[in-house]
Amino acid sequence: MKRWVVAVAWVGAASVGLTGCSVSVAGQPVAGPTSSAAAAQPEVLRWVNNFCGVAKYLVASGGVSFDQKQDQTDPAAAKKAVSDNLGRVVDVLNVALHDLDALTPAPAPAADTAVEVITDPLARARDKFVSARSTVDSAAELTADVYSAVLQDMTEAVTVMNEAVEKMGVVSLPDDFRAAAQQAENCA
User: Fold this and answer.
1) At 24, which helix (H) or strand (E)?
2) What residues pair up with 31 in beta bridges, in sequence order?
3) Is the pTM of this model over 0.85?
4) SS3 assignment, position 59
5) Are 84 and 137 in contact (CB under 8 A)?
6) What are the residue ranges of helices labelled H in 102-143?
């Protein structure tokens, strides 16, 4: 399964070059302090920090994978392992969707659009993983047909997650949100 490493790529910090100013001191010019980007509005900074937090969670949870060491000789154990792994993926997506939902309404409509672009495909992916788990749980045993149905659902889930990444490339956050990413702890 692919990881969502790209999830926060488009939030990237906007570089803001500010020049320092000179202050005369006893007739000698001395460089003054260089200012950094203006402090972000608290609600924008909170929103961006939480948004990046969801992305960090998805990236960190990207390590959820199917256990290759499962007992291949015990069909019941293999079925349970597949079901448990699918359940972990569903749980990760449920948490991410819950946290994204908490970001709306955003301080600016364009940020709500960014959340929608991510939420819809994640919800569809979650539903596909739920379907795959249901297929496993309702099967008497893991047959080739069951594996085929599960792999089909998983393929569709990853496909819609990739679509989300592609859509994120065309969505842009307002300048103040991109600037706040420089100050947000979770965006570092």
Assistant:
1) strand 22-25
2) 22
3) no
4) helix
5) no
6) 109-138
Q: Which residues have CB under 8 Å from 37's CB, separation 6+?
A: 16, 18, 179, 182, 183
Between 42-61 and 109-138, two packed helices, what is the crossing angle to 10 degrees? Answer: 30
Measured over the CA atoms of residue 93, residue 94, residue 99 and residue 102, the dihedral's sign is positive
Euclidean distance between CA atoms 125 and 8, whole angstroms: 18
Identify the pLDDT of residue 64: 58
Which residues share a beta bridge with 24? 29
The three-class DSSP label of residue 188 is coil
Q: SS3 of 136, please? A: helix
* Distance (Å) of CA 9 to CA 15, 56, 64, 70, 148: 14, 11, 21, 34, 33
Q: Is 117 exposed, middle or buried (0-12, 13-18, 19+ CB in 10 A)?
A: buried
| CA distance linking residue 5 with residue 137, whole number of Å | 30
Q: Which is more confident, 100 or 1? A: 100
Quick one: CA dihedral 128, 131, 135, 136, positive or negative? Answer: positive
